[in-house]
Amino acid sequence: EDVSEGDLSQDGLEEGMDPVGFAGPSQKVVKPLTPEALAAFKASQERAGVIYISRIPPGMRPTKVRHIMGAYGEVGRVYLQQEDPKRAYLRRKYTSTKKPHFTEGWVEFKDKRVARSVADMLNAQPIGGKKGTRWRDDVWTMKYLPKFKWNMLTEQIAHEAAAHAAQLRVELSQSRKEQREYLKNVELARVLDKRAERKRK
């Protein structure tokens, strides 16, 4: 479900959504918690449950997932993983679809019992909706993640981002090394050509 310009922030992102697909409460200045508030927060985290969606239908965005899941219970946070940057580049280059695509996602329900029942009820079932709805015939593939908490996901994302950055550094270093080697060979070939030319004279 597309959003109107009025739903976008100045950065062109939906409110509460960062560039990699998080749709949830907007980021606010964090104030120190009182012991009572901290205890209440920990209790709410213990009550919450997370489901994993292994395939996101093409074109479905975090706000749409939140809207659909919200019909079954109170939703906390939603995170959808964007497709691989190389794949996204090729898709935008060779197709008319320019909007980001998402490959998998996690949805947090405030009540773990609701999360479990939603996953059991919707897994392998058509998304449905009114006739002509874009994803009517797509099928959900999801499972409940027992003992999985949202902070585990954020730690995983941070780890993968760090690993990706490290891989990029390795690739750039290798590219620079290959470039230096190429320039060295070009210079060597130029010197050898000059020597051969002098010998012919």
Automatic annotation (TrEMBL):
SUPFAM superfamilies: RNA-binding domain, RBD. Residues 1-21 are annotated as: Disordered. Keywords: Nucleus, RNA-binding. It is found in: Nucleus, Nucleolus. Gene3D superfamilies: 3.30.70.330. One of its GO terms (molecular function) is RNA binding. One of its GO terms (biological process) is small-subunit processome assembly. InterPro entries: ABT1/Esf2, ABT1/ESF2_RRM, Nucleotide-bd_a/b_plait_sf, RBD_domain_sf. One of its GO terms (cellular component) is nucleolus. PANTHER family: ACTIVATOR OF BASAL TRANSCRIPTION 1. Belongs to the ESF2/ABP1 family. This is 18S rRNA factor 2. It comes from Daedalea quercina L-15889.
